[in-house]
Amino acid sequence: MRLSVECLVSSPSQGQFLVHAGESPSVFTDLLGARGFALAHLTEVLRRDMVAAGAPVFETREQWLETSAPVEGQEMFVEGRLVLTASGGPFRGRSRDELAQVTPEQARSILSHNDSPDIPFSQALNPYRGCEHGCIYCYARPTHSYLNLSPGLDFETRLVAKVNAAARLVAELQKPGYVCSPINLGSATDVYQPIEREWRLTRSVLEVLDTCHHPFTLVTKSAGVLRDLDLLARAGQRRLCYVMVSVTTLDGALSRALEPRAAAPWARLNAVRQLVDAGVPVGVNVAPIIPFLNEPEIERIVEAAAKAGAHAIHHTIVRLPWEVNPLFQEWLDHHVPDRAARIMARIRDMRGGRDYDADFRTRMKGQGVWADLIRQRVRGASARHGLGHGGPQLDVTVFDASLLRAQTAQGSLF
Length: 414
Hints:
By secondary structure, the chain is of the alpha/beta class. The protein has helices at about 45-55, 60-65, 155, 165-175, 195-200, 200-210, 230-235, 250-260, 265-275, 300-310, 325-335, 340-350, 370-385, 400-410, and strands at about 1-10, 15-20, 25-30, 35-40, 55-60, 75-80, 80-85, 100-105, 110-115, 125, 130, 160, 185, 215-220, 240-245, 280-290, 310-315. Helix 10 (about 300-310) links the parallel strand 16 (about 280-290) and strand 17 (about 310-315). Helix 4 runs parallel beside helix 6, helix 9 (about 265-275) packs parallel to helix 10 (about 300-310) and helix 10 packs parallel to helix 13 (about 370-385). The longest helix has 17 residues, at about 370-385.
């Protein structure tokens, strides 16, 4: 097997530059959360940047192979470029745009509302449909069926950008009778998935919320959240935001298989650290917990979150609604065939004998002795590290819609 690599590398001191490593890279690193970077000539300056960021560095290809062997035909992305292909043939670079198609949409409304007792927010905003991260367990996959697209590959590659998200938000926040309550960003698909780099819809939404002092919560598994650190830090100082970073596993190889285009575990923990240092309250989601897969890591993930400065720990059990169920079981059969039956049997133990139970009383945490044991382990590990289980009380009293009218009148909001 030969490795051929071409990648864009970002270094705080060196900036961004292109490296072509050829077929015999001498150094391999997992950088920037897109995994898979081979550098033929790694400078000492870049090395220091990587070490400071907590990125693992392997001196030889053999060391890397011992840690995370490549899969035939495996592909990974960063900054829109294919960066690693592990195959027997020559390297052929392809841009992400050749795989992911983004369709602009003019949304008629942007805020969704719910009154479910197991969801800790009453309104949410999702600027994108579909998610390029490609997490096999994602409970939002079935929503793509509403677009007459598949919850499988289409969910990851045929994306929709609600290009008027900020404008719709301005209009809806100014409606007569609007009652302020925290808006959750990313309840369905990740607001910092890779296409946010170009479309900047999440940034535009945060600018609206910043202008009118509206509270919000945010869920992500992307280190891209750091691009908006200026807005998040200001919101944190005003008690107007709470960020939750999902850490599914600390195992880079498992993360690459489960969440192929999401940030690496170390990059998510680094994002937690930088957010906390900037004064942003941060919780870590140990989610979703999958028995016999990432479940053995519960205590280690909680410990890592505590070391990164997280304020609280949250957890959910894996959910397999509708089309997610066959996709997930196919993934198990392919990646962990020796454990597939045990994993599904334990999931059924926590779902009243079914693959999934949508009852709002149990869908997030499961039921039965095994679900109770997981809950005890999460709470026990959190207690040992002084971590709570709830977010901060956000300030709803400072919201002022008139600031939106003033800003819009000046023509400077967008």
